[in-house]
Amino acid sequence: MKHKLIRLTALIMAVIMCIPTNITALAAETTATEAQQTAYTAAISPAEHGTIVFTGGDGNSRKFNKNDKVDVTLRPDKGYLVSQFKVTNTDTGKVLAKKNTTDNRFTFNMPEKNVTISASFSEEGAGNDSENASSESGTSDYIETGNGIWERRGCLWIF
């Protein structure tokens, strides 16, 4: 009888010790799955008269989590300037952010969707005055209010 009690106690202890290991493994799998679901793609669209690159890296697309900083550099060909920078929802084509400018570097927070980054380049001296440039009304959810601050119906997004 004493021998059976020892075996039963050993079995119970082994089962108790194994339970936390399985729970931990399940939690790790769930966390990994959630991380995969929150990664969104930022893809660079080919441009005429210049290139767009992720600052500090290569490739035409990268994965980012929501609110990660996305930093891109626009490199106009010789004799050209940046005239417009645009971020669109890859799935719907809707413009999420747009700026008429001659700046060559942009940083924005990754939204909860896949995006396409594009830019337009125009010849130097062809009327590229960023102070006089205007956004198309009604085509974007976001409006630049100055100093890298974009506004969407009362919400502020700092890029």
How would you characterize the overall build of this protein?
With 159 residues, this protein is α+β, with helices and mostly antiparallel strands. The protein has a domain of 108 residues: Sandwich (Immunoglobulin-like), CATH 2.60.40. Helices cover 23% and strands 42% of the residues. The strands form 3 sheets. Strands 3-1-8-5-6 form a 5-stranded mixed sheet. A 3-stranded antiparallel sheet has the order 2-4-7, with no helix packed on it. It is rod-shaped.
Chart the SSEs and their pairings.
Elements: H1 2-37, E1 39-44, E2 50-54, E3 61-65, E4 69-76, E5 80-89, E6 95-100, E7 105-109, E8 115-123, E9 143-146, E10 149-152, E11 155-158
CATH class of the domain at 39-127 and 140-158: Mainly Beta
Largest sheet: 5 strands, mixed
What is the global morphology? rod-shaped
- Average pLDDT rating: 74
Q: What is the helix/strand order? A: HEEEEEEEEEEE
Point out poorly predicted stretches. 128-141, 152-159
Structural class: alpha+beta
Percent range of helical residues: 10-25%
Measured by DSSP, the beta-strand proportion falls in 35-45%
Q: Tell me what the CATH architecture of the domain at 39-127 and 140-158 is.
A: Sandwich
Strand order of the largest sheet: 3-1-8-5-6
